[in-house]
TrEMBL record, chain A:
This is Ribose transport system ATP-binding protein. GO terms for molecular function: ATP binding; ATP hydrolysis activity. Belongs to the ABC transporter superfamily. Residues 4-244, 260-501 form the ABC transporter domain. The keyword Transit peptide does not apply. Signal peptide: none annotated. CDD domains: ABC_Carb_Monos_I, ABC_Carb_Monos_II. Keywords: ATP-binding, Cell membrane, Membrane, Nucleotide-binding, Repeat, Sugar transport, Translocase, Transport. Gene3D superfamilies: P-loop containing nucleotide triphosphate hydrolases. InterPro entries: AAA+_ATPase, ABC_carbohydrate_import_ATPase, ABC_transporter-like_ATP-bd, ABC_transporter-like_CS, P-loop_NTPase. Coiled coil: none annotated. The lineage of its organism: Bacteria, Pseudomonadati, Pseudomonadota, Alphaproteobacteria, Hyphomicrobiales. It comes from the Bacteria.
TrEMBL record, chain B:
One of its GO terms (molecular function) is transmembrane transporter activity. The chain crosses the membrane at residues 20-37, 49-68, 75-95, 101-124, 131-150, 170-190, 220-241, 247-267, 274-296, 302-320. It comes from the Bacteria. PANTHER family: ABC TRANSPORTER PERMEASE PROTEIN YPHD-RELATED-RELATED (PTHR32196), INNER MEMBRANE ABC TRANSPORTER PERMEASE PROTEIN YJFF (PTHR32196:SF63). Keywords: Cell membrane, Membrane, Transmembrane, Transmembrane helix. GO terms for cellular component: plasma membrane. It is found in: Cell membrane. This is Ribose transport system permease protein. It is a multi-pass membrane protein. It comes from Cohaesibacter marisflavi. InterPro entries: ABC_transp_permease (IPR001851).
TrEMBL record, chain C:
This is Autoinducer 2 import system permease protein LsrC. It comes from Cohaesibacter marisflavi. The complex is composed of two ATP-binding proteins (LsrA), two transmembrane proteins (LsrC and LsrD) and a solute-binding protein (LsrB). Part of the ABC transporter complex LsrABCD involved in autoinducer 2 (AI-2) import. Probably responsible for the translocation of the substrate across the membrane. Its main location: membrane.
């Protein structure tokens, strides 16, 4: 009998399907890896198991008995605890308070037993003693910690539940190698104790290092579940991608474009800021410059810095030969920059407002219009949306009624009403479906052919290789290698990205 | 260089632990300024006067803090205070001013405060209504009940009541004992799991919920505590004014919010201390006495007081922002 | 085996429920019901004359609520607690400047709007540049205004409204309707035009819905927010002048009741305190509804305490329909 059995779990948010049919069989004493592309529904499935998301259908059995969870508290009582990818820490509280938040130890009189609180926290901290870094004391407030340290606190908090089913949703994304190794040795101990562990990561090597079983989710549906002995890298990747002859063909057909460099329109030298160090490049009109490397190596920061959303500390930036200093997005837009973020919920979508209002801002800024008559605006907005084959019922419909891919198209259409000179794409296809992706890249290429200069960062290496003319590989905030022409291969990209990567 | 940084970070840790430190500094400064402006303001007698007048606001602000911890707000505290004030006065005058009646009235007062808090908690947390408008609506309701209990101001409280509040024991004014009891109570409460959980909810409701806390119930507890403290504040005001008045608390609600902010508690929740709010309430009292002692012409006193409070509020918010960066 | 059937709530809601979720419609239905009930309780309640009288009072609240509406729409816990203070200040200033003479009306209006604009500017700068939460900033400002009122009123006898102003507010002005109702209608049209047919309106909704996305799309977030606070105080100042006309003489604290009732009118009209959605048409209905409720309660012989209890309960029930926050469980 499996410890946990999920069948056909589904979850919808308005028109968006977060999970179509999630299946999972979790055994005693196994480390079960869940893998799938961004937005495939892994996190939603985990949250359903941990009680924090209410499923819209499906069956849920624990130790052979059907159960109905009413919330995270109920899940905890049944021995299920989840490490939240976005962390569930209270920043102003101390490390010890966070670790023990669910069960605060008290004296007989009901007051908190500080000695016991710290002792319990120390117990979990000591497991990571060699890798926790400076300032990691039980009474230190979480707010002051580094991202990797916060992630460790969330791990400790999850471990402190001493639950029989432990779920870790991307617990290692900010950790370095030694921290990951330490964490893995703890996971193996827990496995020996008979606990069941669900583990999510995007790092293939980690997965094959720790997994007993790998379950693949694609577009909200569980597509395969195999023992580690019965699978390999390529099988997993094939399951993740599914049958997509067109995507593979696309990658091959869009081999290096003819060198058509004209005059460079943007020249950067020695750009430095919070997460970038001494970055230099030149960008020509009509060129698509790719930014590659592991996630979070400064690619996104560079784009945000160019757009004026992050502070540029030093370096020079020449736009058509004239020095510019990006101070804020408004000024950057006036200089001809544009920026599309992959985090559309944070940076892009004007939540709950109409499609028209989501497209209009750049037009207002560039044309300095004050009046906003729908009929007049529609003439400007409809072609921009049409260029991307955006599907919508009417311009007055709320953007929240659209699927993720169409929302992103609306956000991109914002820039097409008054085309910019330079388009900065910051992982623009994160969490959107395949057809939307291909339409988007077709448009990007068309824009480049019309003379727009484009910088593209994508967390999917295939996309990057297929659609950029040239790739700058980032490593720890600076450019470690430039790949062009024959060198622009997956092998070289991986080598440059992983060599010396932390 | 490193020394300076470690000093700075140690200061930051200290301030995070005791968010009321800037307010305490402000309080000291105001004491000194008061002393310079009018040396007589430092006498036990004068201090007793300030304490008896502002003790009600101190309790009210302390109560407000437990709600603000979770990023909520309670605009009905003044109405609760009024209701408890008239209720206990009516009970005491109906059944005579004997000690056991007074105790009974106090018990009833606390129960009324707790019930009002429970109602607010259910409305805001249980029914998920917006705290500002919902507690404003309950404040109208509660004021209505207060008017029903006692339609016009002026019913006197029994002498036992105000004699204890205004009296002395062992030569020391009783209000100072009340303050000491309050400080002890706050020190104990700060060590309870509930305060930690209230702060956790204030840091982020979703995170707290995902951590397995019963967010709804915790927020309701915050409102109940707030209601109880509003009842205690009503006892103070009854002791100070020696009478019942159905409108006595109306103007105090917004002052309690100001005192909470002055005390270093963030309206966005998650950070703060009830002790700081108590200090904040006394700061408001000392500002008005300073304006008086400094010889500001009478028609300018309110403006000077209002402007000073605004500046102090802004400075307080800016200071805590710097600390929490 | 249990099948957990959670149907998609958005789809399963009946059509009736969808209509009930439209605050404007509900407000209008309630207005009609209340007028009918009022007529039943005391004949003559729903007479044209009486409705006009209610509309005048509602117009005063509605003009204050216009500014409050703008600040709330701008999001980031936008709220203006100082409107009551500005109303009082403006009424007193207008009375002093006018001093019962028609010749001084223009000067009075200019002085009041300038004073209001200045107060709003300070609020806006405090909120955006110094990062003070709006509640704290405008609460502190309220204290300053109350002090300022004492200073201004000192030594000068309370000013009188100019006869033309008093007539404008309460006597028929055009088509048998008092000028104040025309003014309110103009404010309504202006607000609707501003919010729905100008780029500024789009930008206000944008910063209220997702401030960061608006910033990334080049919207001057701070400038607009300062402007919203300035407009809020100017609308309050305008209302203050009208209130002077309504009451004839200025008296202190005339504006106090407008602070929270303007917020309630906005929320009843379907603009949640979180900002970014809603509009002024609903707020107008909300303001009239609020005044109507109070008026019906005065016709009931249940005393002041009973009236307040019923009013508080009714507000709670109405608020239950609107502006509830999302459940934590997704």
């Amino acid at each position: 009998m499996s410890r946990l059995k999920l069948q056909q779990i589904c979850k919808y948010y308005g028109a968006t399907t977060a999970l179509a049919s999630g299946d999972l069989l979790l055994e005693r004493g196994e480390i079960h890896v869940l893998i799938g592309a961004n937005g495939s529904g892994k996190s939603t499935l985990c949250k359903v198991i941990a009680g924090s998301v209410r499923p819209d259908g499906g069956t849920f059995e624990l130790n052979g008995k059907p159960v109905m969870l009413f919330g995270p508290q109920a899940a905890r009582e049944m021995g299920i605890c989840l490490f939240y990818q976005e962390l569930s820490l209270a920043n102003s509280l101390s490390i010890a308070q966070n670790i023990n938040l669910y069960h605060l130890p008290t004296h007989a009189g009901g007051l908190i037993d500080d000695a016991e609180l710290n002792k319990r926290a120390e117990h979990y901290i000591s497991k990571f003693e060699t890798v926790i870094g400076e300032g990691f004391t039980p009474d230190a407030p979480v707010a002051k910690l580094r991202p990797d340290q916060k992630q460790l606190v969330e791990i400790m908090k999850t471990l402190a539940s001493e639950a029989e089913i432990l779920i870790f949703d991307e617990p290692t994304s900010a950790l370095d190698r030694s921290q990951v190794e330490c964490f893995f040795s703890i996971l193996r101990e827990l496995k020996e104790e008979g606990r069941s562990i669900i583990f999510i990561s995007h790092r293939m090597d980690e997965i094959f290092d720790i997994a007993d079983r790998i379950t693949v989710i694609r577009d909200g549906t569980t597509v395969s579940s195999r023992l580690i002995e019965e699978t390999d890298h390529s099988t997993v990747i094939r399951d993740m991608i599914g049958e997509q002859p067109e995507a593979a063909a696309l990658e091959a057909s869009l081999a290096p474009q003819a060198e058509k460099k004209t005059e460079s329109c943007l020249v950067a030298e020695g750009l430095s800021g919070a997460h970038i160090r001494n970055v230099g490049f030149s960008l020509a009109k009509g060129e698509i410059l790719g930014l590659g490397g592991l996630h979070g190596q400064g690619q996104s920061t560079l784009l945000r810095t160019l757009f004026g959303a992050e502070k540029l500390q030093s370096g020079t930036l020449l736009l058509n030969g004239e020095a510019v200093h990006p101070t804020n997005p408004r000024a950057a837009i006036k200089n001809g920059f544009s920026y599309v973020s992959g985090d559309r919920v944070r940076d892009g979508v004007i939540t709950g407002r109409s499609i028209m209002e989501n497209v209009s801002p750049i037009h207002f800024l560039k044309d300095k219009t004050f009046l906003a008559f729908p009929s007049v605006l529609a003439r400007i907005i409809e072609p921009a949306l049409g260029a991307l084959n955006t599907k919508y019922s009417s311009l007055g419909a709320s953007i929240s009624s659209l699927s993720g891919g169409n929302q992103q198209k609306v956000v991109i259409a914002r820039w097409l009403t008054n085309p910019p000179d330079i388009l900065l794409l910051d992982d623009p296809t994160k969490g959107i479906d395949l057809s939307a992706k291909s339409e988007l890249f077709a448009l990007v290429r068309k824009l480049a052919d019309e003379g727009m200069a484009i910088i593209l960062y994508s967390s999917e290496d295939g996309e990057l290789l297929a659609h950029s003319d040239r790739i700058l590989v980032f490593n720890n905030g600076s450019v470690s290698r430039e790949l062009l022409g024959e060198d622009k291969t997956r092998f070289n990209l991986y080598e440059a990205a992983y060599s010396g990567a932390q | 260089m490193t020394k300076a940084i470690s000093f700075k970070s140690r200061m930051a840790t200290l301030l995070r632990r005791f968010p009321f430190i800037p307010a305490l500094g402000m309080l000291m400064l105001l004491f000194i300024l008061n002393g310079i402006a009018e040396p007589n303001s430092m006498t036990v007698r004068a201090l007793k006067g300030v304490a008896s007048t502002y003790l009600a606001l101190v309790f009210l602000s302390v109560g407000q803090t437990f709600v603000v911890y979770t990023a909520d707000i309670d605009l009905s505290v003044g109405a609760i205070l009024s209701l408890v004030n008239v209720s206990i006065v009516v009970i005491m005058s109906q059944f005579g001013g004997e000690p056991y009646v007074v105790l009974l009235a106090l018990g009833a007062g606390i129960a009324i405060g707790a019930l009002c808090g429970l109602m607010n908690g259910i409305v805001v947390s249980g029914l998920r209504m917006q705290a500002i408008v919902a507690t404003f609506a309950t404040s109208i309701l509660i004021s209505g009940i207060a008017l029903w209990v006692l339609p016009v101001a002026g019913m006197p409280a029994p002498s036992l009541f105000w004699k204890v509040y205004g009296g002395r024991s062992y030569g020391i004014p009783n209000v100072f004992f009340f303050i000491a009891i309050l400080i002890a109570l706050l020190a104990i409460m700060a060590k309870t799991g509930l305060v930690t959980k209230l702060l956790a909810v204030g840091n982020g409701q979703l995170s707290a919920y995902q951590s397995g806390l019963s967010v709804t119930r915790i927020r309701i507890y915050g409102y109940i505590i707030c209601g109880i403290f509003a009842a205690l504040a009503a006892f103070c005001i009854t002791g100070d004014t020696a009478s019942g008045d159905p409108l006595v608390g109306g103007a105090m609600t917004l002052s309690s919010v100001a005192a909470v902010v002055l005390g270093g508690t963030a309206l966005s929740g998650g950070i703060g201390s009830a002790f700081g709010s108590a200090i904040g309430a006394i700061i408001i009292g000392l500002i008005s006495s300073l304006v008086f002692y400094a010889g500001v012409p009478s028609q300018w006193q309110n403006l000077a007081q209002g402007a000073t409070i605004l500046v102090v509020l802004m400075l307080g918010v800016l200071a805590s922002k710097r600390i929490n960066q | 085996m249990t099948i957990m059937q959670h149907s998609n709530p958005q789809e399963s809601r009946s059509a009736l429920f969808v209509y009930l979720k439209n605050p404007l419609l509900v407000a209008f239905i309630l207005i009609v019901l209340l007028l009918t009930a009022g007529e039943a309780l005391s004949p003559g309640f729903a007479s044209m004359e009486q409705i006009l009288r209610l509309l005048i009072v509602a117009a005063l609240l509605g003009i204050v609520a216009a500014g409050q509406n703008l600040v709330i729409l701008g999001g980031r816990e936008g709220i203006d607690l100082s409107v009551g203070g500005v109303v009082s200040l403006s009424a007193v200033l207008a009375g002093n400047v006018m001093d019962g003479s028609n010749a001084n009306i223009i000067a009075a209006i200019l002085v009041c709007l300038a004073a209001g604009g200045l107060v709003g500017l300070i609020n806006g700068v405090g909120v955006t540049i110094f990062g003070i939460p709006p509640l704290v900033m405008t609460l502190g400002m309220l204290g300053v205004l109350q002090g300022l009122l004492v200073v201004i009123r000192q030594g000068i006898p309370s000013g009188l409204a100019a006869p033309a102003l008093a007539n404008f507010v309460s006597k028929p002005f055009l088509f048998n309707l008092p000028g104040i109702i025309w003014l309110w209608a103009a404010v309504g049209l202006l607000m609707a035009f501003l919010l729905m047919r100008t780029s500024l309106g789009h930008k206000i909704y944008a910063i209220g819905s997702n401030e960061n996305a608006a910033y990334m799309a080049g919207v001057p977030v701070r400038l607009i927010r300062i402007m919203l606070f300035a407009l809020s105080s100017m609308f309050a100042a305008l209302a203050g002048i009208c209130i002077l006309g309504y009451s004839g003489t200025s008296f202190a604290n005339v504006g106090d009741s407008y602070m929270l009732s303007s917020i309630i009118a906005v929320v009843l009209g379907g603009t949640p305190l979180s900002g970014g959605k809603g509009g002024y048409t609903g707020t107008m209905a909300g303001a009239f509804l609020l005044i109507l409720m109070q008026s019906i309660l005065t016709t009931l012989s249940i005393g002041e305490s009973g009236r307040q209890v019923v009013f508080g309960l009714t507000l709670l029930v109405l608020l239950l329909f609107y502006g509830r926050s999302k459940a934590l469980r997704g």
